[in-house]
Design brief:
This protein is an all-alpha fold. The chain has five helices and no strands.
Amino acid sequence: MPCYDGGPSSSKENILQNNVTLLQYEKAKLEAMLCGIIRAIEAYNTDEYLDGIYTIIENYFDEKESGIKKQELIAWWEKHNKNDIKRKALEKLTEEEKEALGLV
């Protein structure tokens, strides 16, 4: 079977959809890695003068190297962390509780 045979799976729409799906997968994976790294830094951070991830970002994050502004990273982290808190709270609910709250 050739790599490209012009059939339905080779249509421009299918190829684009597969690329979008792959990019979504890669984005989710990279976000999970970044989340894990930030949580590891928070867990390892025992220095009294470093009072959390915000201070670490302010003091050590290199905007020039990454091409990302510190505030962009902080905004992403705050949104991601908020979603994690919600997800973890929902995971603790029983199916009956989810149903009673109209979440199912």
